[in-house]
Amino acid sequence: GPQIHLRQLLKLEEDENCRLQFLTEATQSRDVKQMIGVSSFGTSGSICHQLLVGEKSWRCSWETAGKKTTQHSRTPQREVEWFPNTSKQKDVGLPVYRGYFLMGTMTAWQDGLLMEEESPGIFGYTLKLSENFERFQIWIDEDSNRVLHPSQPDGQAESKVDGPSAEKERSFAWRLGDGKAGDAFRVRLHLNGKFRRLEWTKLKGLDVMKPLDQKDFVHKFFIIGDHSHWFFKEMNEVKKGNFVAEVQLLKEKSGFQIYRDADFDMGFYPAEARNDLEILGPDGFCHGCNWEITGKVGDVFQVHFQRQAGRGQDKKSLRWEYLRNEAVDWVEKTKHHVPFVFGSWSDFKDCEALERTNATGNWKGKFRLGESGQDKFQILINRNPLASLHPNSDVATSDGRDLQGPDDAGHGKYWILGTEKDGLRAGDEVNIHLDMNGPLPVRVWWERVESFGSHHEYLRQGSMRTLKRHERLMGIYNITGDTPVQVNPVIKVQTASEWADGRRAQQAIVWNGFLDSWNDRYPFLENSGTKLRMGNTN
């Protein structure tokens, strides 16, 4: 046959659209559904051709709100994974000194659980569910910079193993369970050279018994809500599985939720109504689903929460009772609060702290309006998106007298800069002010900073738009493409043949003269790295 003397495969250029591939291992199919032909030529003269039709299985992606579940997309369930059934080879990744550790919700992401080596290349651990599910990653040497994780959030058994990665988000973790608290599973990591595989098996009978040296992790429960400006407060365990906390109302209707280990993926919340004592969770679908206590500002209530799971139990109950009324110490409750501005000029990626004015106790910060000429922002207390100061409408153009919060109702509600009312333009420097009445925020407003630098920035952006327009009209372009001119750009013509036309040559001379006069008139453009020149490519 043609493969008898094959010694080396032809190296093809890596091209995702290329259909010709020499396969040496199982490979992810390019299409969702495809037909494959396999030919077999026997030595006795028998010839066979087999047609194989395959289709990827689908996994539904869900959005859950209370008891309602809605399908909104379909994606392929997972990639085809190849794991060689050959002699074990050493892991070609980073060296391992202490071993492989499970890190996840079963220990509040604090303590790693060492996997034992069952045989060469196979590491295992018996994991007992403390809730109806657990989520975990595998940390090499218990190091957060060497994390093995699934390629997609909430990975299942046999999903693709990626890594090691540094500081991988907790959402990229395996989700084990969807069973009952107390169920036990044997989690196994298989290693063979560059190949990795993770699977688990549910245990029964005597296999469920944990080793004598394995201790149960003591989980804690936290309450969070309007009473604490949406910061976690630990509940006290009065007896096993029973937790209490006192909350003081800071407004007449105060919402709250309960989380295990202060983990936003392990929340408990009401099923439907705000006073519904039917409890859902633990899961990560809690946002906006709060219990609500009604009373007077200063009323103190005691919240009782019961959670008992395992050994056939699955108890969840919650109640609260009125204790007393006392004056709110606003200074004590807000003494550690620092406001941060969260805006679209950074694509909502960074928060910048405001500075406090000692004379008035108010806060302010200086920001620059982006090139679009309009920006949106909120103010977050201590960078917490659940403790946001926001307007009472989706897009507020007023000076901020409609301030609300801090609370968890700020999603999609922003103040907007750059409207006809405030007269701000792209490049303007803006002072954002947060006025306080003692320890409480009462008003957000802003003003343009009349500075020499902001005027230069406005002229620079305007000149860039003018030059771009002339480039298009004259058929020339910038070598940096559509990105803003930054470091010594050279404007070139589209084709060398265009320069053969005398009219084009005259335009180039006029254009260079215009650029020289522009740079002489505005020398600050050169200092900012935006001095312009035009070059001839002929």
Describe the structure.
The protein is mainly beta. 10% of the residues lie in helices and 41% in strands. The strands form 9 sheets. Strands 25, 26, 29, 30, 31, 32 and 33 form a 7-stranded mixed sheet that branches. Strands 5, 6, 9, 10, 11 and 12 form a 6-stranded antiparallel sheet that branches. The radius of gyration is 32 Å and the shape is flat. The relative contact order is 0.06.
Low-pLDDT runs: 58-76, 477-501, 527-538
Kindly report how far apart the N and C termini lie. Answer: 57 Å
Rg calc: 32 Å
By secondary-structure content and strand pairing, the structural class works out as mainly beta
Helix content: under 10%
Major sheet summary line = 7 strands, mixed
Oligomer kind = single chain
Mean pLDDT: 78
Q: What is the topology?
A:
Blueprint: E1 33-41, E2 47-55, E3 58-65, E4 68-76, E5 100-104, E6 113-114, E7 116-119, E8 122-128, E9 133-140, E10 147-150, E11 161-165, E12 174-177, E13 184-192, E14 195-202, E15 221-225, E16 233-234, E17 236-239, E18 242-248, E19 253-260, E20 267-270, E21 279-283, E22 291-294, E23 299-310, E24 313-325, H1 330-334, E25 339-343, E26 351-353, E27 355-356, E28 363-368, E29 375-381, E30 384-390, E31 395-396, E32 404-407, E33 414-417, E34 429-437, E35 440-448, H2 452-474, E36 476-478, E37 490-493, H3 502-521, H4 524-527, E38 533-534
Task: Characterize this entry briefly.
It is built from four helices and 38 strands.
